Amino acid sequence: ADKFRRKLEELEKEKKSLKFQLPSRHPSISSFLDRFVTQVQAALHWAADHRIRHEETQLWHENEHKLLRSTYQERMQVSAARRNQLFQEKKWLQKEIEDLRARLAILEAKDQHLRREIEEQDRLIQSQDCELTALLGCVSLRELQEISKAVDDTLASSYQIPFSLDLPGTIKSLQEKEQSFSISIKETTAKVCTSQKLCSTLRKKVSDIETQLPALLEAKMLAVSGSNFGTAKDLTEEIRSLTSEKEGLEGLLNELLVLSTRNVRKLERIKEDYTRLKQELEQGEATF
């Protein structure tokens, strides 16, 4: 009790000796400072939170701008690819037009040649008619009758001569082989064209996937940086699926290229055999 009494007396003396100054241990001042510090900390916390939200909003706008820019670039790439495809088709059509013009020039030359031959035949017929008229003027009726009888006898004798116009078996066999080679050439050519079209389609699909993958990877990185792990997971699955599809298409494309190469070599061999057979057949027909 004496100890606490002395302590109270000391505190009373200290209280009377204290003046209003900072730092102060006066209860009103202390409570006010506590409230003031609390409000300052709350204000600082709100300002920091507002700044973070502003930065997040700005980052979201930047990401959105990047996505829009990447989408625009993809569209530009697709447009450029379409333009290149149309340009290639135009070049092919121009080549076809040039080939048709060259063929038309050849046909016109043949037409002129045939027209000249027809005119020569007409002149020959006219000259033969003139010769026949001159001959009839020189030969008597009795001589003409004897000539006619001699011609009839000659024709009757010629009908009794045994001969056949049927082609020999070797030539028929060559003709059958020619037809078989022609069918094989058409079938192999169709296979080569089909393989080339499939290869072109697969190349386009692989190219489309290769175009999509960088954009998906960039979107995935943006989702990870923005803590959108669900979206990042979906993008990862899509990237994995596209990569697997791309590998499968590339394997199929390699197989088709090998098959197309074999068909091209087979077609070349068939054409060489067909050329030799055609020459042999023409020689046999000319001999017959």
TrEMBL record:
<feature type="coiled-coil region">
    <location>
        <begin position="83"/>
        <end position="124"/>
    </location>
</feature>
<keyword id="KW-0175">Coiled coil</keyword>
<protein>
    <submittedName>
        <fullName>Disrupted in schizophrenia 1 protein</fullName>
    </submittedName>
</protein>
<dbReference type="GO" id="GO:0045111">
    <property type="term" value="C:intermediate filament cytoskeleton"/>
</dbReference>
<feature type="coiled-coil region">
    <location>
        <begin position="232"/>
        <end position="287"/>
    </location>
</feature>
<dbReference type="GO" id="GO:0005815">
    <property type="term" value="C:microtubule organizing center"/>
</dbReference>
<dbReference type="InterPro" id="IPR026081">
    <property type="entry name" value="DISC1"/>
</dbReference>
<dbReference type="GO" id="GO:0060271">
    <property type="term" value="P:cilium assembly"/>
</dbReference>
<dbReference type="GO" id="GO:0005874">
    <property type="term" value="C:microtubule"/>
</dbReference>
<dbReference type="GO" id="GO:0001764">
    <property type="term" value="P:neuron migration"/>
</dbReference>
